[in-house]
Amino acid sequence: MTQIPRVTTTLLLALAGPALAAESSIKLPTQTILGSNPATAADALPSASSHVDSNAISPFSLGANLSESLQRVPGVLALNRQNYAQDVQISARGFGARAQFGVRGVRLTQDGIPLTMPDGQGQPALFDLDGMQYIDVLRGPLSALYGNASGGIIQGYSAPAPLNPTLDNRSAVGSDGLWRSRLKYGGQHGDLGISSNISRLETDGYRDHSQAQRDLANLRLDWDIDDASTLTLLLNSLDQPETQDPLGLSAAALHEDREQAVARAEQYNTRKTVRHNQAGVNYQRTLANNDQLTLLVYGGERYVQQYLAFTGDDPFAGGGVIELDRRFGGGEIGWLRDTQLLNVPIELAAGLTYGYQGEGRKGFVNNLGRKGDLKRDEFNRVDSKEAYLISTWALTDQWSLTAGVRHSRVEFESEDDFLSDGSDDSGSADYRQTTPALGISYQWSPALTLYAAAGQGFETPTFQELAYRPTGSGLNFALQPSESVNTEIGFKLREGDTRVDAALFYTRVNDEIVTGVEQATTDRSTYANAGKSTRRGLELALEQRLPWDLNAYLAYTYLDAKFDQYSDGNGDDFSGNYLPGVPRHSLYAELAWQPDGGFSTALEAQSLSKRYATDDNQATAPGYAAFNCRAGYRHELGDWALEPFARLDNLTNKEYIGSLIVNGAGARYYEPAPERNWLVGIGVQYQWR
């Protein structure tokens, strides 16, 4: 199967191939649909980046949550909330830490298809981890070239179809009634490559009232049309019915019983149903002059019904049952050229993108778990139009420059169909921003690369954050985008069995979007703009191969994130306080042993320092260190392969807080992690030869 470049919403930021001293140029950041050799893909990128290969995506684990693999990425905090109604909690250098569900401030894509909507809200449950070949994570100034809400980029790349048809099943059972099974098929049939999988997850949940079922299906078809063009079709589906939501716990409830659900969760039967279907087509053609033209088109639908923990029958409450019926789609056309300017080899990328999100939003009274009278009815839409131009310059054999600019226009519009007194809650907002970025790298030696970068970024509020005003009804169009200035210096060392990545960064944010004043009787949040905030820190990743088939890995992050100027609507001054939900220190370490013969095992450690739960820094989650172990064995017998595995998490049975609901309603901030828990499973594979 021919390997083909692919574009995502920027065409650009996963740089392919470092510029070695003997090379005369550096390749512009093209991406591939069918998989590539990414081992050196980001070495020349003048920005912090991490590569997570397939061995680390599901290292004898459940294989269902992005937090399982992203915990090893410095600068990124990926936490399993033990609540499938709210999904994994992900932030990068503090961007996105405020998110009470879904992902904000961090863009998600897989195989060219954005998993972040035009308004900036992402859904990590949509990642096809079963078909994933590797994940690239980008932080720092160059990530701003992705446009709105790009404090960090998480990009998934699916594996190409195997040459020989292959069928495999992987099933696992674990604590709290956990069960997951997936069936996967892949094969090359002439010029057509087929990769597909289906899976089901069921769990009773660690806490009361947290039962969940999740079904996923994914299909990718890769077609080599001719020597110059290729076409890829992607289909994805998620069905997650009636997922129970136990809500966050207060400090008193946590001390009383960490496994309990909030009483209001039982009373109002808090739960969420999600159905999501999408399709994408990616076409790429090499022109006669070796220019590359790419065209990406995608679209889909998403339905959400959520029962909240209150009636919502007050005049401006908008209901305690939310129904969202969304249609979304978009596309990108990109152009790539190698050329020279002033006798300097350069590579240029330019493109246009468009994204659309149209959503019918209704609110109903929650009559103790049953849908009541209509309280809200509106149609909301977002249009995102962007243009970008990026270049890489091979200034000398050692110096290279990456420079780019992206212009974004994001338009929000709401049509109120509920009020009819001539003063309805319709409205609109139009946000425009141009985000430049510049990075330079210097190849000190074949093993060591130094770099520096600077850039501007911005983040609009999502429709969910605009949905409610602090007082009255209608969208909160007073909420403004946040703007950031990002700088970074770092180095990347590749010397024999040693790999080191280190970065120092400094970020200033104006109009930081924060969770506003909460109503103690509801689980509904409003949002506001803080004045200014600063993030400064250090990221370090170290991998070292050791004797006796041992491999050591360490990822450490120091992040000092504070409000410089921030007074809330009540006149309270939080200037100088730490950003809630952001630990100052985070660490992941792993010692793995993989001798010849198919057996492997590892000891893992994860540690977070104290985190604040509120803007006033009065509520905290203590720091912790947790230890896990895993083991597995792969045995091949003719056309068959067997892979039994097991893992034990939280070996010391420690009680700690897994994640926080920042400024949560009713002081219910805490989502506890399970004590000691287990998982066992087996993979069975058959290949036709």
TrEMBL record:
Signal peptide stretch: 1-21
Residues annotated as domain TonB-dependent receptor-like beta-barrel: 244-642
Family per record: Belongs to the TonB-dependent receptor family.
Membrane topology: Multi-pass membrane protein
Family matches, as PROSITE patterns: TONB_DEPENDENT_REC_3
GO cellular component: cell outer membrane
Record domain TonB-dependent receptor plug: where: 45-152
CDD domains linked: ligand_gated_channel
Bilayer-spanning residue ranges: none
Protein name: Iron complex outermembrane recepter protein
Source species: Halopseudomonas sabulinigri
Any Pfam family hit: TonB_dep_Rec_b-barrel
SUPFAM superfamilies from the UniProt entry: Porins
Keyword Ribonucleoprotein: no
InterPro entries: Beta-barrel_TonB, Beta-barrel_TonB_sf, Plug_dom, Plug_dom_sf, TonB-dep_rcpt-like
Cell location: Cell outer membrane
Molecular function as annotated in GO: siderophore uptake transmembrane transporter activity
Assigned keywords, A-Z: Cell outer membrane, Ion transport, Iron, Iron transport, Membrane, Signal, TonB box, Transmembrane, Transmembrane beta strand, Transport
